[in-house]
Amino acid sequence: MRSMVIATAGHVDHGKTSLIAALTGISTDRLEEEKQRGLTIVNGYAYLRREDDWIHVLDVPGHERFIKNMLCGLDSVDLALLVVAADESVMPQTREHLDIVKLLGVPRLLVAMTKIDRADETMRELVHEEIFELLEESPYEGAPVFEVDSVSLRGIGPLREALFDELLLHASRPVFYPRLAADRHFKQRGAGDIVTGTLEGAPLKKGDTLTLYPGGELFRIRGMQVHSQEREEVLPDNRVALQLSGKENVLLERGDVLAQKDVYATSDQMQVRVRRLLDIEGDQRMSFYFGSKELKGKLRFFSEEGALLQLEESTLCFYGQRAVVRSESPALTLGSVEVIDPLPPRGRRTQKERSSRLLQATELSEQLELILEKYPWGATETELERERTQKFSQLNQSFPFQRVGGRLFSEQSLRRSLEIMRSRIETFFEKNPLRHHIEREEFRTRFFSSWPRDAVEALLRVLQEEGVVRTEGSRLLLTSHVPTLSAEEEAMKVALLERLEETKVQPLEKTELLKENPRFSDIFRFLTESGEIVFINDELILKKSWLNYVVNDIIDAIKQGGPLEIADFRKRLQLSRKFLVPLLEYTDARQITQRMDNRRILSKESANGSDINR
Description:
614 residues; alpha+beta; Rossmann fold; Elongation Factor Tu (Ef-tu), domain 3; Arc Repressor Mutant, subunit A; six-stranded mixed β-sheet; six-stranded antiparallel barrel; 19 helices
């Protein structure tokens, strides 16, 4: 089964609708006003079918007042059928429609010269020349021209055959996840919401669930039709009508995009490549036509081609997506934008620097390197798919990803991330030469709070394997760093330890020591990290050997005398309540002792009471 979507293009009253009726037997004028005036106002839909092959036809308005309607759904067209009347030749909307077809990157084009019964041979030859000049130096140069008469059906057969020949050449769009931009929406009594559009990305099945982008509301597919035929499954590149069930208070509109949940990006800012037909001024409010949706926004230019698109509301966006740009007054087609980064990093300077590289990146490897720059902690498969609108299995076939934990790097991005982490930890110890270690959680929150926790831990494991750091429980140590005291600091350390030795089991008070010498603060940390002193709370300090003595004495006292009150400990240790209570709270906190009313017993978790590092 093959299928593709084609659209007409051309000046008003050049016979587009009559041509489609002659080709398909279907009149695409649905509105009464269209039938009365003989003028297409909204897009019409028809199809050609040969066995299992389908050509879906989008008939667009030609009048300049209905350009907005003409743009609806053109982004999913595979071939444009440019219609030029033999009695009028190339006209203003012929040129504008062709410009729009080029701006949207429609890959192929055929030309139908209509109304040949109204022009003699000389006139038709002149029209051929003008068509040739129109297409010259365009992507469609040399496109075949078919002379047709929609009334007598002269030339209709060869044109129909040429369309089916094009179908044989048509290459399906890249497989991704299903999405549908609604170009029509209506409610049907007893059926609920009905939306129509061109299915892209991947097949849909009856019963599948789709998400509204943006918004996140879920809709279940109750039924599907392709040109009034019920289907259980629909393949991409088909026009489809979906019958949906969802929240009654959610109103669907033309331009809404339905897609699989959490696989596409949603943004109101994106970096784009700008293609100009007319002058485009930065900061000018303009209309941007994404799929079936008209959005308002501005362009902030970095260069002639590179810009940041700032929209007034969020929309589904993806790499390579195109939108036509039109001015508000006068209403003119100015050019188009092509998304080159759907989720740009913050910062105008960063965006400007990336813009030139994004524009120059033609190879997939270059594009992936630029994406990975935004994820110094490593990207997930889902993030890479969302950034590039391509399945990871396809990306993985052509790019040498490296896995660290559950995240993906290139060789270059991994070395860059490890260097950032190495630099941060080295700088920390350079600024804190007396520190033995830093707690891993302190390191993460101080330097990498915006990075996912699992990514930081995974990268630290790599640095540990490389011998840059080592861990001791929750502590992180720099292998090359050895805390070294100056002669003056060594003297301060010795003096402090001597004083702690003199006071034995009676703690010293930090505040009083700092009043004597504020530089004791660095020595406190040094001795704490080396394990020579212990803070039993925020204020009181004991030498570790004397703390061991006190703790073991408390354990022995309880073993000998059973549950004891504070008064019992005071007699035994000869300490005032000022120091004794914090000591007992210290042993309680480490589950060495346990308080019961006014007495202490040994904790069940205390094996022998001698390990004070718990």
